[in-house]
Amino acid sequence: MRPLEWSKSLANMLLAAIVANGFQPFDPFTFALAFIAVGPCLWGGLYALNDFTDRHKDTLHPVKRRRPIPSGQISPRAALGLAAFLIALAFYLAVYILRNPLFAVCLLGMLVNQVLYTVKPFEFKKRPVVDLVSGSAVNPVLRFYSGWVLFGEGANPAFNAPWLLLAFLVGIQFGGYTLYKLGSKKVEKTVGYKSSIVLFGEQEIKLIAHFAIFVGVVSYFLALYHGILPLKFVWLGIGSLLLTPVYWKTLADPKHMDVKNMYRVLYLHAIGFILGFLALAFWA
């Protein structure tokens, strides 16, 4: 279920909920239920489904072969049953507890996108261009809107978030995911994938990733300039930029990144960003 990965949903949903509610305190119980539906339930189930479909390929990966299914700790059938239960529970919370149809649409969008990415005969993860778009451009938007529609426009929420915030989230997450994927090039080539990292040159992929991250950073500061975020949030942007040396080796040579250490750094950064955003929104 990859609990640490839920931090992406938490960060995206929190940012959306805070901005949508005009930087005023919102109902924490509603938000907590929504996060449980998105993070532990929906994405916990989708990660289990992904591990089920990738179980044979993961045995060839130096890191992923330690996951519960390829390592033999959990049977494939048990993992598939867990995935189905968690995904069903996510929609139960959305439809019968939160009673928010737009929130349910966000869940459905993420489910459909991940099925297209993971499951035969679609398997977008094996196809060039759509593998990167499906894997890291669609989901950040839907995670963000999962928080936005909870509190946006009072009783009449809509899919009307500022595009600069979406560009910030998509740029950073698309760029990071693309660099991470370069570390799997050897495995994906061995199993016959025709993915972006297999078909396109490493330098081109790195250039795309770096450009996406640049767009994300610029979008954040433009959101400050246009008043979408209060100017005091500039300190979060500056603080994140000061961490650039920590990521420099990964940015320059992603194929040889220390995946375990980089995950640790990214999660600590994400947690720090969340706490900083909360502090500036409600207490600073």
Automatic annotation (TrEMBL):
- Stored InterPro entries: Prenyltransferase_related, UbiA_prenyltransferase, UbiA_sf
Which molecular function terms from Gene Ontology are attached?
transferase activity, transferring alkyl or aryl (other than methyl) groups
A single Gene Ontology CC term: plasma membrane
Subcellular location(s) of the protein: Cell membrane
Arranged from A to Z, the UniProt key words for this protein are: Membrane, Transmembrane, Transmembrane helix
> How does it sit in the bilayer?
Multi-pass membrane protein
Q: Which PANTHER family match?
A: CHLOROPHYLL SYNTHASE (PTHR42723), CHLOROPHYLL SYNTHASE, CHLOROPLASTIC (PTHR42723:SF1)
Q: What is this protein called?
A: UbiA family prenyltransferase
Please give the organism.
Candidatus Iainarchaeum sp
List the top taxonomic levels of the source.
Archaea, Candidatus Iainarchaeota, Candidatus Iainarchaeia, Candidatus Iainarchaeales, Candidatus Iainarchaeaceae
